[in-house]
Design a protein that fits this description.
CATH topology of the largest domain: Enolase-like, domain 1
Structural class: alpha+beta
Largest sheet: 3 strands, antiparallel
Strand content: 15-25%
Radius of gyration: 20 Å
Strand order of the largest sheet: 5-6-7
Length: 226
């Protein structure tokens, strides 16, 4: 069972977490993180011809974690809980946003741990939804297990910086995030300002990628609970 039910002195019943099961899954996650650390920084094995950059692909993530999950007795279950659209750009007009419920299960105990992750995707065809789903899965795996790749959005790549310096500042909000935030908060700009206050930012354009993601995840989580 995922939880244990106990009876208090006053006769009321309360559900408390089963810390033994939580601990067993956590130990497996820590072992997996250690194995990832020993692999070092993972090389990017794919190239985006449209925007001309290297990246750690979905296929690489699947190959890597299929091996690790099997070795450490963990199962991953993914369910789509929300799907939305937003206006894209002139070059990539179709915008999609997907929220996934990702559940890690300890196959030895049956205990599961679920978290929600949001991905955004832009495309000029019908792949925006696929990109959004892939982005959410990558975000879950990389943030949960601290995957070290060279896809750091805040790392200054000399080659990329030289090529795109006139129009791109490394680490700033992406065009897709900017479009999505404007769409999500078009009817409640005061709420957006309140969410930006902790970052000491007054304009959306001043947010960096991580800050924008935090606000988007917060907003999407609130929408899912309405």
């Amino acid at each position: 069972m995922e939880n244990e039910r106990i009876v208090m002195n006053d006769g009321t019943k309360n559900v408390v977490p089963n810390f033994d099961l939580i601990s067993k899954l956590q130990k497996k996650k820590n072992k997996l993180r250690k194995a990832l650390k020993e692999k070092g920084i993972l090389p990017k094995g794919a190239h985006n011809d449209y925007d001309d950059y290297e990246y750690f692909s979905e296929a690489q993530y699947k190959e890597l974690f299929t091996e690790l999950f099997s070795e450490y007795g963990i199962e991953l279950s993914i369910n789509e809980v929300d799907y939305g659209t937003f206006e894209g750009t002139a070059k990539q007009p179709f915008g999609r946003i997907v929220t996934l419920a990702c559940t890690l299960v300890d196959i030895d105990t049956g205990y599961g741990e679920t978290s929600r992750h949001t991905g955004e995707g832009l495309d000029r065809g019908d792949k925006a939804g696929y990109k959004a789903t892939t982005g959410a899965i990558k975000k879950f795996l990389s943030s949960t297990f601290l995957v070290a790749t060279k896809d750091d959005p805040e790392r200054e790549d000399p080659k990329v910086t030289q090529k795109k310096a006139p129009v791109v500042i490394p680490g700033t909000i992406t065009e897709g995030q900017l479009k999505l935030l404007k769409s999500l908060f078009k009817d409640n700009k005061q709420e957006l300002k309140a969410l930006m206050n902790p970052f000491k930012k007054k304009l959306i354009e001043e947010l960096n990628i991580e800050e924008a993601s935090i606000i988007i995840d917060h907003k999407m989580g609130a929408k899912n609970n309405e």
